[in-house]
Design brief:
This protein has 513 residues and is mainly alpha-helical. Helix content is 57%, strand content 6%.
């Protein structure tokens, strides 16, 4: 499926659909007049006598060097090739395609001076499945994501590498096989393609999409854990959260009330329970997950704005008839958003891990067997699964340290303050992968714990969750090779089946009463 996008108005839902479903995207025809007007202004400037950065001058520290009119096309090609200095692991195809869509949205605003003909090459590559090979390291989020975007632009002109029909090959070969004519860059087009925050923003958006999915799963896992240890639902009462006033906290508590509604386990110990209060990992889930939700929502708003932003340099101000150098390429907003997402991911995992530790500890789990095995001693049960969650929780804590507060001068001190947005955004995949496992293990422990409460039953919603888990992972009667179980549990979280089964997104959006 191909989505038609209006520059300046793309939504998070549209971008997530492109990323998850692998669809293509094209710009709405209404964007073309502004694009053509900006390209015409650049063409006129390239033929004029006035020095215009990146049009008829060198780049960065070489901005004072004038370029002859006959050399402007060569200038753009040289720029692309010289900036292809990316190294490291190759960016995955879905995220690369999202980055290409973000570049379309940015230049589609009509302030970059890139021609419709060149933009159509990106649209054709998306439609025909030609994906540039983008090394993921090399950007400091300063004058845009120069190295990653240069590799994208190189593929557009038939240089570097691309993936086509699941085969990595020279980009020229991929373009030829797909029937796409390589782009021939006009003045400023190379600079417009490599300036911008699209690599950092794409990676941060993926981190955001996965963090939201993980948070939704943690609402289900925390409810299941609460019933497993026969915890109280009194801390979920609406009045408590209304007095605090934070929207995320209110929404998480409401969703948890809905998910736990109808639990026989809960009703069985409303009176006569000798415990006065549950540990914080049970009692404070709305406060912690709610704060994380608020942070993620704010980060999502920032990234939606950035996805629609013009972030290259210089910008073509058509109405004023001039081309002006500025600093929209500086990725500080993206770096801040990535740091916020990282903090939220780390904290969602931290409180989930404490619930795992609670359930395997017989001194805290309210009569559940040690390590949730029917024959402790002979069997170790989920003992080391809990240790794995502790390891991943600790790793995420380290990874959550801010990247936006780092900076290093580059380009002979011309670019003397940088955002490190690419670093901040790239680490989110690893953190979310870790969180998938932490929540997956919590689900295994909680499902096992609830099953020990039979014949009492949990809520209908949580019964459905356990059934979904048990379709892939059997109850742990005696010790077995566990790595496969952990991988399957993480997949249940990451692919969204669990959240979809319960309808958590709707509950958080206000469906819970």
């Amino acid at each position: 499926m191909t989505l038609t996008l209006t520059p300046g108005a793309a939504t998070l839902d549209q971008l997530e659909e492109i990323w998850r479903e692998g669809g293509a995207a094209v710009l709405d025809d209404s964007a073309r007049p502004a694009i053509d007007a900006a390209a015409d202004l650049v063409r006129a400037a390239a033929e004029g006598d006035e020095a215009i950065y990146g049009v008829n001058t060198g780049f960065g520290k070489l901005a004072s060097v004038r370029i002859k009119p006959g050399d402007t096309a060569r200038l753009q090609r040289n720029l692309i090739l010289s900036h292809c200095c990316g190294v490291g692991e190759v960016l995955d195809v879905p995220t690369t395609r999202l980055m290409m869509v973000l570049k379309l949205l940015s230049v589609g605003r009509g302030a970059s001076g890139i021609t419709w003909k060149t933009l159509s090459v990106i649209q054709q590559m998306l439609a025909k499945g030609v994906t540039p090979v983008i090394p993921s390291q090399g950007s400091v989020g300063a004058s845009g994501d120069l190295a990653p975007l240069a590799h994208m632009a190189a593929a557009m002109i038939g240089e570097g590498e691309a993936e086509f029909e699941d085969v990595r090959m020279p980009a020229a070969e991929a373009l030829a096989k797909s029937g796409i004519e390589p782009a021939v860059l006009a003045p400023k087009e190379g600079l417009g393609l490599i300036n911008g925050t699209q690599f950092s923003t794409a990676c941060a958006l993926v981190g955001y999409f996965n963090a939201i999915r993980n948070l939704e799963a943690s609402i289900v896992s925390s409810c299941l854990s609460t019933d497993a240890i026969m915890g109280s639902t009194a801390p979920l009462e609406a009045g408590i959260h209304a007095f605090r006033g934070h929207r995320g906290q209110i929404d998480v508590a409401a969703a948890m009330r809905a998910v736990m509604h109808g639990s026989e386990i809960r009703e069985s110990h409303r009176s006569g329970d000798t415990r006065v209060q549950d540990p914080y990992c049970i009692r404070c889930q709305p406060q912690v997950a709610g704060a994380a939700l608020d942070l993620l929502r704010f980060a999502g708003q920032t990234l939606e704005v950035e996805a629609n932003a013009v972030s290259d340099n210089p910008l073509v101000l058509v109405d004023e008839g001039k081309i002006v150098s500025g600093g929209n390429f500086h990725a500080e907003p993206v770096a801040f958003a990535a740091d916020q997402i990282a903090i939220a991911v780390a904290e969602i995992g931290a409180i989930a891990q404490r619930r795992v530790a609670l359930m395997v500890d017989p001194s805290l789990s309210f009569d559940l067997p040690p390590f949730l095995t029917p024959e402790p001693g002979l069997n170790s049960g989920l003992m080391i699964a809990e240790v794995t969650t502790a390891a991943l929780m600790s790793e995420n804590k380290h990874l959550a340290n801010p990247c936006s507060t780092d900076s290093t001068p580059t380009s002979a001190n011309q670019e003397d303050h940088v955002s490190m947005a690419a670093h901040g955004a790239r680490r989110l995949k690893r953190m979310n992968d870790n969180l998938n496992v932490i929540i997956g293990v919590e689900l295994l422990c909680a499902a096992q714990g609830v099953e020990f409460r039979a014949p009492l039953r949990t809520s209908p919603a949580l019964e459905n969750a356990i059934s979904l888990i048990r379709r892939d992972i059997a109850s742990l009667a005696e010790d077995r090779f566990m790595a496969g179980d952990l991988a399957k549990a993480a997949l249940i979280v990451s692919d969204g089946r669990l959240q979809s089964e319960i309808g958590v997104a709707d509950l958080l959006a206000g469906g819970a009463q």
